[in-house]
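[STRUCTURE TOKENS]
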Amino acid sequence: MPRNADETRAQLIRTAERLFAEKGVNAVSSREINREAEQRNATALQYHFENRQGLIRAILKKHESTIDQSRNQFLDEIETSGLYGLDRFSAALVLPTAEKLSDREGGRFYLRIAAQLVNSYRPRVDPIEYASASASLNRWRAMVEPEMSPLAVDTLHSRFTATRIMFIELARRAESPRRRNDRLFTSHLIDLVTAILGAPISAKTAALLKERADG
């Protein structure tokens, strides 16, 4: 692809990140993105991404690649040390994504966009489903599941709930002014994710699950 085409694509992504984060994914038109990106060609977005869904996927891909690499490093350390536990797996889930809080190349915009998509009833692109294609998240799931209750894995899908809570809390942090560091925030978020993954199944919930299964 010619250099100017690369630059145009990058400018469209940067502009869309900002507008989607500030105004809302569903409140920004393709025309507005083209205009704010100073593209004279009204079909620039369609040319580079085919449609808005393609643009959203490009934004997620831009950030997921570094998250994927970082998470694999955390999982490598767990395997090498042999020290397993929900707290360590929670850190491997949260910390790579939390690194986006300090990413000045649209990282905080990414977190806000991801949370919008997570909260949408039928998102055009679900960041969790998109991220599911990543080797590191599939690896994380395979490694964490033996540490969890079978009901929490196969029936209640607690690992998905934990991932969604992570996105929502990180977006809330991304909307606030930058702090000197985010260590306390991320440590508390890891605690919350650990609690969700390890939450005991109450007798009431177990009874309701049985009632649903008996049908």
Remarks:
- The chain is about 70% helix and 0% strand.
- The radius of gyration is 19 Å.
- Residues 52-81 form the longest helix (30 residues).
